[in-house]
Write a structure and sequence with these properties.
Elements (H helix, E strand, L loop, with lengths): L1 E3 L2 H11 L7 H11 L6 E5 L7 E6 L14 E6 L2 H8 L11 E5 L4 H11 L2 E13 L21 E3 L6 H6 L7 H13 L2 E5 L5 E7 L5 E6 L8 H15 L6 E3 L7 H6 L2 E15 L6
Parallel strand pairs: 4-5
Antiparallel strand pairs: 1-2, 2-3, 3-4, 5-12, 6-11, 6-12, 7-8, 8-9, 9-10
Helix pairs in contact: 1-2, 3-4
EC number: 2.3.1.-
Enzyme class: transferase
Protein name: Glycine N-acyltransferase-like protein
Amino acid sequence: MHLVCEDHIMQALYQLLAQSIPESLKVYGAIFHIIHGNPFNLEVLVDSWPDYQTVVTRPKKQEMVDKLDRYTNTYYIFTKDLQKCQQFLESTEVIDWKQVIQIQGCQESLDKRLRKIAASKFLQVEHLSNVLFVKEEILQLGTTEGKLVTTVNLELTFARLNASHAKLVNDHWELGLNEKSLNYVIRCIQNLPTFCLLDSEGNPISWVVMDQTGELRMACTLPQYRAKGIGHYLKVNTLQYLFKENIPFFLHIAEKKKYLFRGLIQSGFHSYPHGWNQWTLTPKMKSQY
């Protein structure tokens, strides 16, 4: 196991991971933000260097103080060899299996390996697999820039979210809706790019929040403002900013929301079924009898 501390190795690894997109996206994006300030205080492990097979990014030990906070206790994994990956992860030095944790990655093939580890360590596993969307080329957005197709007269302002908006975001995030996720949302808003449209009274009606891997993780347009072109307008402005700043990004959407796929594909995104994966692993409670 090698803890990557040297800047030149981190940069070299980042460039190597670019060759394995989309499978490496979670780790690739996390390392981007590590290089650019490391707002979530993450660290990077490889099984060996320079001939690595598996990369893991994780929070530093001092971050994982709450054993039940799966939003903070999240690991991101990319591997080129599933068998060696399993052996690497089974080491107690890589993952703290005594905590409630999340593991995220863009390789559904990790599922079998993680379940084997979970069975040996008496862990409950919940696997969520959704469609990954990746934009590989910069769109020519000139034909849509600044256009807002709406059937009502609205005065909208493109802005950033602030911590006072966190509850609104958390209340509309299907994978959140609890106190620990609220704290996570606040941290994302305070440390990473966010985008929103404000109504004439300064209230967000549509928003996007990036997570520590570059994923556009939390996005919503309030129901009464949907089907008016507002979400598209926000998307155009968001993508223009990210491309301008050279910030890598991607997103995922659940299969049940297929009505959103067409717009993304028309905007130049490529879809990868089962390309976004999250495993929640929970230690089983020991019997008192």
